[in-house]
Amino acid sequence: MPLIINLDVELAKKKMKLNDLAALVGITPQNLSVLKTGRAKAIRFSTLEAICQALGCQPGDILQFEESSPSS
Amino acid sequence: MTKIQRISKYMKLGCLTYMPIPILASLLLWFTAHKIPFIEYLYKAGYISISHAGKPIDILSANMTALARTVGFFGSFLTDLFTVLIFYFLYQLLSLYEKGKIFSHQHVRLFKNMGYTTLGYATLGLMFSDTLLTLGNTLSNPPGQRILAIGFGTPNIEFAFYGLIGVLLSWIMAEGLKLKSDQELTI
User: Is A40 on the interface with B (CB under 8 A)?
Assistant: First the structure.
């Protein structure tokens, strides 16, 4: 998947645990884990907004697009 | 327990109770109806019957040979088998509803199975059943008066339609499952 989720990087920077972030955002840790592990198919703007507010970061800090390189 | 679970529980018991009845009834009628007075009375009164092409088969006739009865029984057994199979899938479906599982891959699979089984019943089941029933009904006749027939008529088309509806429902449910999965993976 070309979209990389850097949530664990931001969590480490803020020294925050996943469960704490989930409580602040208002979703279950299981749901947040789906995002962290890259299994999510979509994210609501409201959720992204809440995550950025809790971590004090930009959406681009969490979501990174990397074009998949063609196999040689 | 929700109303779905409650009703499913009772319907599940109904399915379980009904499942052995068609085959047992066919066995009883084909092989013992002419020997047991009570069943003979019920058959003559029209409470129970085995009919073919709209006419009841004379299973009470003493002239009907064991071979004719066996062939006729397999004719009934073929359609009974499909019926039992459909009720078995329905039983599994109701078991899922009873446990509170409303929508999953298992449900899709069961609807698909019921649809294809009904289609199989409409095409192969009814067709060969009719053939065997005709043969069983006439096998005891003198040579030259025995009939072997294969046909495809309105009941076949009717059940084929029901089968197709079942298969279509399973495809629609499969699409619904994809939507559900997308919804579950939307944060």
Answer: yes
d(CA B127, CA B79): 10
Q: Does the structure's ipTM exceed the value 0.95?
A: no
Instruction: Determine the distance in angstroms separating the CA of B74 from the nearest CA of chain A, rounded to an integer.
Output: 53
Return the closest-CA partner of residue B185 out of A6, A56, A40, A38.
A40
pTM exceeds 0.80:
no
The set of long-range contacts for B23-26, using a CB threshold of 8 Å and a minimum separation of 24, is B23/B77, B23/B80, B23/B81, B23/B84, B26/B50, B26/B73, B26/B76, B26/B77, B26/B80
Cα maximum dimension of chain B: 77
CA distance B124 to B79: 9
pLDDT tens per residue, range B10-67: 999 999 999 999 999 999 888 888 888 888 888 888 887 787 777 777 787 777 888 8
Amino acid at A48: L
Interface touch B187/A44, C-beta < 8 Å: yes
B179 and chain A in contact, CB less than 8 A: no
| Encoded tokens for A23 | 């409580």
Tell me the one-letter amino acid at A52: C
Q: Which of A2-6, A57-61, B90-94, B172-176 has the lowest mean pLDDT?
A: A2-6
Label residue B152 left, alpha or beta by phi (over 0 means left) and psi (-120 to 50 means alpha): beta
